[in-house]
Amino acid sequence: MIRWIRIVPLLWATACRNPQRMGEELFPPPPVQVDTLLITSVRQVFLAPPSTRNAPFVFIGEAEDTLVGRWKGGWATQFSLGGQNVQFFASELVAVDSVVLELFIASSFGDISVPLRLRVTRLIQPLSSAGTYTTESTFLTDGQNLSRPGWDSLYYIAFSPGVRRFHLDTSLGRALLTLPATALVNDAAFHSAFPGLYIEAEPFSPGARSAVYTVFPRSPSTLLRVYYRERIQGQEAPQRYDFAINDTCVWAYRLTRSVQGPPPLRDQLEIDSALWASRLLIGGGVPVGVTFEISGWERIQRRPVLSAQLIWPSDSGSRGAFSAFYTRPNSIVLYADTSDEVASAAWGIGDFRNEEALWDLTAPVQEVALGRRPPPHRFYLWPAGRTYTLQRWVAVGPGAYTRPYLIVNSVEPYR
Question: What is the pLDDT of residue 260?
Answer without folding.
Answer: 87
